[in-house]
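Internal ticket - ligand job 190, heme C:
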Amino acid sequence: MKPHRLLKTFLLLLALFITTAAAANETADMVRYLDYRSLPRISDDPVEMTLPAAVLCKDPTPEFGPHVFCAAMHLYANQAALAAKAKGGDKVRYPIGSLFVKEKFERKEATAPMLITVMEKMSDKGQVEDWKFTMIRLSDRSVVAREHFKISCEDCHAKFSEHDFISSASDSLLSAFLKKQPPVPAVAKR
Ligand code: HEC
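stdout (C-alpha cells):
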C-alpha cells in the first residue's frame, strides 16, 4: 500500500473509533431523554420563561459566551405523568417513571433548541430528591455538570411542593392540555 493510502485508511479508522467511542459514552438514560420529541408536547406555542428560570437556563460553559440565556420553552411529559395529572388534578402525586422534559430556546422565534432539562421520578417519598434532575446541552449532547449551577435544581424546585415539585407554570400547562383532550371513549356495554 502507498504511504498516503495507508494514512487515509488510518485516519478513517481513527474517525470511526472516535465516533463509536462517543456514541458508547451516551448512557441509555441520555438516549431516552434525547428522544423527548416522541413524547406528547404539552405546550402549543413556545412559552416565554419566567426570569429566574430563564437566567438559569444559561449554559454555564464559556463556549457560548456570557450573554446566552433562554427566553422560551416547550414542555413534554410522558403518559405516566399525564395519566397521574388527569387522575390527581390539584392533588397530583406523580408515579415512579414520570418524565418531564423542558426544551429551551434562546429566542422565542428560534427553531433549534439549545438545551433540555429533564426531571424523572425515581422514588416516591414525597421529597424533591425523588426526582432526578439533568441538564443536557444539545450542540454536543453532553450533560452540563452540576458544579456549574449557582442554585441547585432541587433548591428551586423544592418550592413547588404543592404540585409534587413540578412548577406552577407547567402544572397550569398540563391542566390546559388535558382539558383539550377528547374524552376517553366509553367501553360499549353489552
Ligand atoms: C431558579 C429556580 C429554578 C432552578 C434553579 C431550576 N428550575 Fe427548573 N423550572 C423552574 C421554573 C420556574 C419552571 C417553569 C417553567 C419556566 O418558567 O421556565 C421550571 C421547569 C422545569 C422543568 C419542567 C417541569 C416543571 O417542573 O415545570 C424541568 C424538567 C426542569 N425545570 C428541570 C430543571 C433542572 C434539571 C434544573 C437544574 C439544572 C432546574 N430545573 C433548575 C425553576 C427552576
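Auto-summary: The pocket of heme C is lined by residues 49-50, 52-53, 56, 73, 75, 100-102, 117-119, 133-135, 149, 151, 153, 156-157, 166-167, 169-170 (CB under 6 Å). Residues 1-34 form one domain.
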